[in-house]
Design goal:
Blueprint: H1 8-15, H2 17-28, E1 33-36, H3 38-44, E2 51-56, H4 60-67, E3 73-75, E4 83-88, E5 91-97, H5 118-123, E6 132-135, E7 141-143, H6 147-153, E8 155-156, H7 162-168, H8 171-183, E9 186-187, H9 189-198, H10 207-218, H11 223-233, H12 235-239, H13 259-273, H14 280-288, H15 293-296, E10 298-299, E11 305-306, H16 310-324, H17 329-341, H18 355-365, H19 369-379, H20 385-408, H21 420-427, H22 433-449, H23 454-467
Parallel strand pairs: 2-5, 8-9
Antiparallel strand pairs: 1-2, 1-6, 3-4, 4-5, 6-7, 10-11
Helix pairs in contact: 7-9, 8-10, 8-11, 13-14, 13-19, 14-17, 14-19, 16-17, 18-20
Protein name: CCA tRNA nucleotidyltransferase
GO molecular function, one term: nucleotide binding
Cofactor: Mg(2+)
Length: about 475
């Protein structure tokens, strides 16, 4: 919908009957109520969700009184900040009292202060596109800072000066990059200038809040735009220094692929392969898979450049960075594993892997195999069209081999041909380290040779036990 549509208010009210009902309740009690912020912005962009934001002159306690008996559910987890949550007919509504907060300039937590007017509430908001309001139930439209025009121009700007806005809450700088990713918008020059000058202020923000905003950026439709803004402004140097570090210096004697640009290309290609919606694990792995290249770069005597074992170094760096950003352990290990494995395919050549190597590839990837397929394909970027086709065909062949072996063997559940109980019985030992060592040996044997019958597996186990002085040749029978 065109943001300048004169019928906008009427269409918005028709699209939000629950909001109109709520507005009537407030109006009957002598209070003001406005649909505000992202809800108005998203409606103008044709993407209104079932989560609606409101602002009102009523205090939180009064809001609870007004919705009592009308709301199906209420929650007050945000009441300290003036917010009451309400659910009605599948719609989530957050109602916040007019705010006129004061910031101390040291943290992002304001001293909550209730305002008396809508104007006071709107001017404190992060961006003009989030500072529009529609009165309920009447539908009067308020746009004090040019939000509609900025939506039409796809621009991100602040209601007041960006220096004041970012000084109040430095997280807003990261939100600017997030909106660039989600909406495809461009920050105003003064916003970019303030972000660049004030990037160090992001250190005032808790890691948890930074991670939450970064996730929204990565999962947006245009993450390249947001990531480029983070890098160019210096914000990435504060929160994700491995990203700008990918901008390796190059000279005429030591040419190599632009690692920073390549990483963004891999991310875009991985996104194009997604079929079930945005995948945070895949996108993080695509972005970070080569962060081990800067510390492993070596200039060769012949004039080339090498990055030996960058996948090993990179896997450790990924783990450290994601831990520092307080990502969940499971997600961190998934991204680390994909980073560690992303280069292995390039040793495949033209079908040179043994069945054993294929089994190991599948087993080491485990439940990440499908993501690994996508990451490796996304990583096959080259200006040489013939080489790209060759790489993709080679990976097609590898996937076909995986499928054929999987038909004959349950690759998803590769286990030794003898279980723990059989090992203890055959070796005459009880539970302990020996059983684990024997189990690990038999699993490696299974990967190397494929399924074995019991007699063959037992013979290999006895031979291993003799070599490791667990059994004597006389007892190994």
């Amino acid at each position: 919908m065109n943001p300048c549509d004169p019928q906008m208010a009427g269409k918005l009210l028709a699209a939000t009957p629950v909001a109109v009902e709520l507005g009537s309740i407030f109006a009957a009690a002598g209070h003001q109520l406005y649909l505000v912020g992202g809800s108005v912005r998203d409606f103008l962009l044709g993407r209104l969700s079932s989560d609606l934001d409101f602002t009102t002159d009523a205090r939180p306690e009064r809001v609870l009184e007004l919705v009592h008996g009308w709301a199906e559910t209420t929650w007050d987890t945000g009441i300290a900040f003036g917010t009451v949550g309400v659910a009605k007919r599948g719609v989530q509504l957050e109602i916040t009292t007019f705010r006129s907060d004061v910031y101390d300039g040291e943290s992002r937590n304001p001293q909550v202060s209730y305002g008396e007017t809508l104007e006071q509430d709107l001017v404190r908001r992060d961006f003009a596109i989030n500072a529009m309001a529609v009165s309920l139930p009447g539908g009067a439209f308020t746009d004090l800072f040019g939000g509609r025009e900025q939506l039409e121009a796809a621009i991100i700007d602040t209601p007041g000066t960006p220096e004041q806005s970012f000084g109040d809450d430095p997280l807003r700088m990261l939100r600017a990059a997030r909106f660039a990713s989600q909406l495809g918008f461009t920050p105003a020059p003064r916003v970019v200038a303030a972000m660049t000058a004030m990037s160090g202020e992001l250190a005032r923000i808790t890691v948890e809040r930074i991670q939450a905003e970064f996730n929204k950026l990565i999962l947006g439709d245009n993450p390249r735009l947001g990531l480029a803004l983070l890098t160019d402004s210096g914000l990435a140097q504060v929160m994700l220094p491995e990203l700008p570090a990918l901008r390796l210096e190059r000279d005429e004697h030591h040419q190599h692929k632009d690692v920073y640009e390549h990483s963004l290309q891999v991310l875009e290609r991985a996104i194009s392969f997604e079929t079930g919606g945005p995948d945070l694990v895949l996108r993080l792995a695509a972005l970070l898979h080569d962060i081990g290249k800067p510390p492993t770069r070596r200039y060769e005597e012949a004039g080339g450049v090498s990055f030996h074992h960058h996948e090993v170094v990179g896997a450790k760096m990924v783990r450290n960075r994601l831990r520092a950003l307080k990502y969940p352990k499971v997600l961190t290990e998934q991204v680390r594993t994909l980073t560690f494995l992303h280069l292995r395919f390039h040793g495949y050549g033209s079908g040179a892997w043994t069945d054993s190597a294929v089994r190991r590839y599948v087993t080491d990837a485990g439940p990440l195999l499908d993501r690994l397929h996508l990451l490796v394909r996304a990583d096959c970027t080259t200006r040489n069209r013939r080489r790209e086709v060759m790489l993709q065909n080679s990976y097609d062949e590898l996937e076909q081999r995986i499928a054929l072996i999987a038909q004959a063997e349950d690759l998803a559940r590769v286990r030794p041909d003898l279980d723990g109980n059989a090992i203890m019985e055959l070796l005459g030992v009880g539970p302990g380290p020996i059983v684990g060592q024997a189990w690990a040996f038999l699993k490696e044997l299974r990967l190397e040779m494929g399924p074995l019958d019991r007699d063959a597996a037992q013979a290999h186990l006895y031979r291993w036990a003799v070599e490791n002085k667990i059994l004597t040749p006389d007892t190994a029978s």
